[in-house]
Amino acid sequence: MPLAAMRRATRETVSGLPREFWWLWTSTLVNRLGAFVATFMALYLTLDRGYSASYAGLVAALHGLGGVVSSIGAGVMTDRLGRRPTLLVAQASTAVSVAVLGFMHHPVAIAGVAFVVGAASNASRPAVQAMMADIVRPEDRVRAFSLNYWAINLGFAISSMAAGFIAEVSYLAGFLIEAGMTAVCAIVVFVKLPESRPVRAETEKADEEVGLRAVLRDRRFMAVVGLSFLVALVFQQGSVGLPIAMGDAGFSPADYGLAIAVNGVLIVALQIPVTRFIDRRDTKKILIVSSLLAGYGFGLTAFAGSVGVIALTVCVWTLGEMLNAPTQTGLVVRLSPAQGRGRYQGMYTLSWSVAALVAPLMSGFVIDRFGAEWLWALCAITGTAAAIGYGALTRRLPSEAPAETPTATEADVSPVVGPVVGTEPDVRTA
């Protein structure tokens, strides 16, 4: 593609989004740039503190459990207290708990604080996604979610490389740097982001409509949550099943690092072009294709005998990841009533948090009992099941979302982008 065409494509991808979105995007990028702890936590516990691998696994599980617990609570806070207060509480709590974790020595204290860190860091996700849906026009949400996903992966790619160098100097420095950058995110939210929660009449009926019980009774949405869990279970194998299987096959950690690096490089390089491709395209087709790419991308690993071939399989499921992430998030927004976006996003986040807990147990059990080939076959089956489920679920999507009342900050949004919220048109959303 000529340079001029690339510039035009990039400009069209990023244009037309309100300034509040870009401040939220900046906060996300800074947050991921400082995400050192998750990268080197296992090495920190085993090499620096001298704990066993089993204990390191327990701490990782507690960190994930914290995310599971906070998903629903953060969703409720997002709707009741507002997006901005929830973000401030979550990011401030994360900054403090990460800093405290760096000074913990007793195994019980480390495990306990790790649980708090997992809960606090995960609590911001429903608020971020709900705020993004509030401030971005329905027809622009696919681009917004894709750009946010791109920022997450760009930040994580850079922080992963920096984590190794920081760990060689001081693990404590990594904890403090992450705490400091998370605090910067909180400052950005406090200074630049107004509250975006839609204004509504305080009635018991409205409260009932957005209660957790109403979310659980929403069969279509809960089906999306279930399918999201299946897809997340497959994608999690990139960080849990793949390294175990490669190690059993005689590959070195460096080989795994080289193969998995393809995932981050592709996302950073191709997410914006992929965003242009999927913008306003059919939700059903994209979710079906992404599920099949994920399932069979991992399924093909059973036939990979070299690092190069494994890297090719990573390319396949990474493409599925790039298609699935913004599209599925947008489908959640489309099915969510404006007043209940926090709870709906919290339930959606829960599916990924639970998958992060189940995936390590599943991959270890299957590989130990039956072999890695069965794990990859199971991934292919799971991806196929998800594709069939999405096909059935999205057969008759609602043509428009429930009408939304104006937000408290509608006047603060640049008028060139149109109203912040409104009736959702009959187009592909994400």
- Distance from N terminus to C terminus (CA atoms, Å) equals 27 Å
Strand-residue proportion: under 5%
What is the number of helical segments per DSSP (H or I, 4+ residues)?
A: 18
Topology pattern, helix = H, strand = E: HHHHHHHHHHHHHHHHHH
Q: What can be said about the biggest beta sheet?
A: none
Gross morphology is globular
The CATH topology of the largest domain is given as: Growth Hormone, Chain: A
CATH class descriptor of the largest domain: Mainly Alpha
The secondary structure category is: mainly alpha
Q: Write the CATH architecture name of the largest domain.
A: Up-down Bundle
Write the topology of this structure.
Blueprint: H1 3-14, H2 19-33, H3 37-48, H4 53-80, H5 83-101, H6 107-122, H7 124-135, H8 141-169, H9 171-192, H10 204-209, H11 212-217, H12 219-235, H13 241-248, H14 253-278, H15 283-299, H16 307-335, H17 341-369, H18 372-393
Helix pairs in contact: 2-8, 2-9, 3-4, 3-8, 3-9, 4-5, 4-6, 4-7, 4-17, 5-6, 5-7, 5-9, 7-17, 8-9, 8-14, 8-16, 12-16, 12-17, 12-18, 14-16, 15-16, 15-18, 17-18
Features:
single chain, mainly alpha, Growth Hormone, Chain: A, 2 domains, disordered C terminus
What can you see in these coordinates?
This protein is mostly helical. The C terminus is likely disordered. It starts with a helix and ends in a 37-residue tail after the last helix. It has two domains: 177 residues, Growth Hormone, Chain: A; 188 residues, MFS general substrate transporter like domains (Growth Hormone, Chain: A, Up-down Bundle), CATH 1.20.1250.
